[in-house]
Amino acid sequence: MSSSSRRRFLFGLLALAPALGFWLFLTNARLHRVDAVTNLVETDVAIDPASPTGYAGGLRNLIVPGHNNESSQWIIQTQQMLAPGGDWRIREVRYDNAPVGRTVLTPSPFRWWLGLLAEIDHWVSGRPVGISVERAARISGPVLQLLLLVGATAFVAWRFGLWAAGLVSTALATLFPFGGSFLPGQSTDGSLILVCLSASGVLLLAGLSPGRSAGASSIGSVPLANPAAPWWFLAAGLAGGISLWLNPLRSAPIIGGIGLGGLLIAWRAHRGRQSDVTASLLPWRYWALGGAVTTLATYLLEYSPQHLGRLDLRVVNPFYGLAWIGLGEVLTRFDRCLLPGGTRRDRRVLAAVSAAVVTLIVTPVVLHATGAYDLFTADPDAARLTNLVGGPIAENFWTWLRNDGVTLTFFASCLPALLVIVAAALLLRPATGDLPAGAIATAFGPAFVMLGVSCAQLRSWNEFGATIPSLLIALTAFVNRAPTAKFVRAMGIAGMFLVLVPGALLLTREARADRHAPATELEVTALIERDLAHWLARQAGPDGAIVLAPPNLTMALIYHGGLSGLGTPFPDNKAGFLASMRIAGAPSADEAQAVAQARSLGYIVMPSWDTFLDEYAPQGTADAPKTLWGFLRTWRPPRWLRPMPYHLPQVAGFEEQAVAVFRITELQDNATALSRLAEYFVEMGMMREAAAVALALERSYPADLGAAVARTLVARAARDPQAFGRAIDDVQAGLARDEAENLTWDRRVSLAIALVDGDCLEQAQEEVKHCLAEIDEDQLRSLTTVSLHRLLVMTRTFGLKIDNPQIYLLAQQLLPPEMRDRR
């Protein structure tokens, strides 16, 4: 490294300081928020190093900000990868579309990145590696941004100068929504994609620089004299190939935009009447070779040998490598055709290669349009501008503008587009020696393409942000070379800094608000769903259970409770999604039961705050109230479903919400099903519904002992002495007929409770002895929380005990902590 390059490098590190301070401020505020929300409600989880998650029962504790299902999935898959016997490439999962599972085609690099951070945390702290994955998810985004900040700033300072380094470091820290893509707790591969795309653009500009000694002032000149250019282009292709590996549909537009930039360079050279043909030619074949070889290598690394025949265009495959080679050849031949000395052979080859590239691009689109191949699957996150809580969600740019109007968020996102307009104006200028046309064209192409894509889907503003560092470098080179006064050049640099100010203001405002704001509705929902998942996991036992719930809640139950589910909000899980819709929207209980049994379904969960299945499940039927979901909403469960009482934790803002949990059981007789429903209503404080069921039991099943027990409990809760007297008399009559032997174990516990309430203590003691003699783990989990608590109270009151210490410990674990304290 020369002395001048060394000075630029050191000055670049100084330029990094403000951006690094801003990164520290944002990261500290956001991490504080993630930890504060996660610890807002106390959880009852025990550490278990043998568990893949690090917690007993496969539970997870971290609250993922923004209910980011993709992040939850990355955490689950990384823990699966690091578990004993785990595969370094996750190709199958069982947590959704259960019990069949599904194929996973998502690429591995981000799992490896999370796994690397988790292993470091595990080695340093000694935590179980499963918990270390949660810890890694907290910091994976910020660490990636830090590495990008330091690496890019040092590199730009070395190759392009201090001002370019200062602008790039500021942009990487403050661009919005790009700067909000590296959030603590929301660990997604989108952050890694942005790093690779940013690196690809900057490396291309390094190839356009005549050499280290020339510095930033001559970047992008035509003709070129950089012997290292092919290697820089090869490195840019490598970075672009990795981004294509991560997500082709998000990366391909930028690769195509680079191709547009290459065409503009050739057009500018032709317009400038360059006489030296070879001097202006750029090593596009090296760029294409780097990208194509990386594409093929990553395809083989990721999917060999079992999945090589599956050429899904949503993931990396050789098709993209062929298209890339064709694009490189088009750029090379187009360059030669436009400049003096171009031959007919060049033009024929250009026409042939262009036709091939067009065919490669058009074929999958036609297949998709005709329904022969599913290329584009609806991505629910494509309409989301940013993962920051409260960020805009709209179908496209115009819908966003119409709904929200001109706000600071709008300014922060759109103001950098002024740089694209400036670059376009410079490219339309007559060719002069002060214009670094090659650099501007190379940076303009992908920025222009992504600006258009961003108008179609909001998420692409993040990829647009990845093109801005290259554009800033190119425009800085123009300002440095412009034959104007220093004041004018300083104003140009200042103008580029000003474009970044709204993003800095917005991110600062969001960070300060998050630090002191009360929990949002989405955060409270996440806390509730975590508690529900932990409770349901304890009820299900060590073997777990398969759950039917709305897709978002299903993912929360899978993530926090280690359970399995059917439908989740992932495009690859169509089979599980359709199965959940078929069960919930079944026009008869028998059809729903058949599908539920085929799927080994264990529980159905119906939250009041998520009405997805209420809206979509009945779409295939003419009478929505007569679907299974409609029956459950009106408290008419079929006899193979038993309601299980669950009380939401007391969290401000959620007092009016509720959740109904139904357990799949053996077919119950009508009296038993209604009796359990009545006791459910009592435990949930729904006394009007409980009274109605008790009246139906008295009229329809006056001589049934189980019905009399339920009526007793309802009357006691309603403080109705007359109804209580009639019910306890019917209980005694049933005992006289020796009908207690016909009751299931949980109904005999209810019988003991009813006898205690009726002051029939000797009979109650005998029932408790019988229950303790037959108690086991499955029987214990069949009890409601109140029934279990009262069984333990009666056991202690009558001087009895549970002989099996494991059963006793399980009974404690099934109770909430506040009830354990009262025993």
Automatic annotation (TrEMBL):
Q: Transmembrane residues, as ranges?
A: 146-178, 190-209, 229-246, 253-270, 282-301, 349-367, 406-428, 435-454, 460-480, 487-507
- Tell me the InterPro entries matching this sequence: TAT_signal
Q: Which domain of life is it from?
A: Bacteria
Q: Does the keyword Transmembrane helix apply?
A: yes
PROSITE patterns in the cross-refs? TAT (PS51318)
Which keywords belong to this entry?
Membrane, Transmembrane, Transmembrane helix
Record bears the keyword Oxidoreductase: no
What is the name of the protein in this document? Uncharacterized protein
Q: Which organism is it from?
A: Opitutus terrae (strain DSM 11246 / JCM 15787 / PB90-1)
